[in-house]
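User: I want to check something. If I give you two sequences, will you return the structure for each one separately, not as a complex?

Assistant: Yes, each is folded on its own. Here is the first sequence with its structure:
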Amino acid sequence: MTARKTVSVFALALTLVTHAYAACECGFSLQTSNSTATFFTHSLETDFLHISSVAYSGIEGTPWQPQIWNRTAAQSRGAYGRSNLLENIVPNPLPDGTWSGPGARGGDPGLQLIVRKDIVDGMVTGAELATSRTDILYGTFRVGMKVTGINGTCSAFFWYRNDTQEIDVEYLSKNTSIVNTILQSGAAAAQGFDAAGTSTYQKYDAGMSLSDEYHEYRYDWLPDRVDFYLDGVKISTYTENVPDAPGHLLLSHWSNGNEGWSMGPPAEDAVSTISYVKAYFNVSGGDEVDVCSSGTAVCQIPEHSGQPGLDGKPTFFFSPPPPQANSSTGTTSPTHVSSAPNTRLTILSRFAWMVVSLLLSIS
């Protein structure tokens, strides 16, 4: 192939891929269970498999902030207090460009949230992260996570505004097959913030130990309901106590010795590992969707089915995953955030590279 032909082929590929990345400028579409489409204007996609550093100021190139605080036993409503420590948020990255195998520290790759076995000043130490933005209002939220199998902790992926407007997916390691789906409400507050027995609390038995593999935990928050999913299968729906005001997302791993919930502390350090978070949502007062130039430039959010195994294939993001996400140069970011979504790695981009391959093969 001549140099001119080579340049032409890759110029074509660049044009096609650029066109593909611009396909989401009008937002994201979620196909709901009643066959109607819901649209979201914002996205947040974080690849935790390739994060290599954490600091008090935040997690490398992401909108996630470590939450560092102490609570007494009375404040945490348990036998012990709770303490979130920065050293309990531990990166265990895969090598750049790889999507399987052990992390740099050995074992399960991703961002480790650790609950320690030792009591410190009457508190069990754990880990928590929150998004910096607090204006998230409705959306679909997904986390890839491998939970601990060590008894005595709670792993949680939740949206929070206040103690009576909260959407929770919680896993208690005392029962490794159960997913707890919860909408905290005034009814729960009236029972000492115990949602058990309210209309918006359910236990789902997955029929397997959830600590053996990574699973995707998801909730779709719409104005009239909240749907919960495990590995793409709907496990519960609530139409009461649905939050109606903005808040933020959190990831947490904790214990306070409460015999009715987390139990603990664990007999040994317990680790839950995060591989990704994907969120597509609206914001309070947001009108960015008005800037889009074409009403057809909307990306349909793909349905996930099955466990998000680390099989060597890149995790799907609308934005292309950075090839050097944990590079020391700091020139790339493991999180893709958009306020008027404008990137996509879907059919058009794959088609572009198919065209390149075909042209190369016949040149």
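And separately, the second sequence with its own structure:
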Amino acid sequence: MRFKTDFNGYAVKFSPFEDGRIAVATSQNFGIIGNGRQYVLQATQQGLQQVAAFDTKDGLYDCAWSEENENILASASGDGSIKIWDLSAPPHANPLRSFEEHTREVYSLNWNMSKRNLFLSGSWDDTIKLWDINRPESQATFAEHTYCVYAANWNPANAEIFLSASGDNSVKVWDARKPLPTMSIPAHQYEILTADWCKYNDCLIATGSVDKSIKVWDLRRPGQELLSLFGHGYAVRKVIWSPHAETILASCSYDMTVRLWDISLPEDSLLRTWDHHSEFAVGLDFSTLAEGMLASTGWDEWTFLWNQKAEPGV
């Protein structure tokens, strides 16, 4: 099933509470200049239906659902702010709050699955910030990257550990209680746009780069990648591990495709290629509630929801 947004899609995230509910962050004019809109969509027998939409003065680049309240949603804005929305509140009460510390675009948001009041933001001001939803100021700022931070994600097994991916060509691993990273890997020779943890082995991470490759790393032996996955024709915009299968990855790219990989098959790891987008495919997520369910969004203003064993339908 699919849904046409008014603006260009940038990010899509499944609700951790409600099956078939997704948030889609969008930007006008490809995010270069103009407004943003945060959509909430629900899969129904009639297709994807709009549940809510929140307008912003600047483009939106990412979004994240709260892990403690099914109605709370955060959006990453091009003006450096993070907007918090409450689906259960009347329109005049939204945004619930706006965190305004980053000095450039916020490009990444990730909620902590254990300490459910905490979330991370990554920004083009080269920093990562740690936030408590209940406090007005950030709790910490991590400033060791030398270029834009494109992704910051919590470790699925340890609530204090997170990784970050940057345009400085490095991936860093951090302990939120310490100001300096515990590890820095020069993972690619070009900008790293995305990184994610394996949900079943928190020593494994995957990175995606402008160099068109995906690399899988074992943090116990960070000197050399475990394997590289080739197939995308342009920069890899998003790579995510399946929440249901230890060796399954999905990725999307500026080559307009979404791909599914199995790293247990190093010679034949590419399982599927979908080409349902007609512009850059930039947002991708797996459902934690429905095994095999994927969502993607792109600059063609289409958001798709489908099972990995099928084709993204109309």
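Because they were folded independently, the notes below concern the second chain alone. The chain is about 0% helix and 50% strand. The first strand starts at residue 2 and ends at 4.
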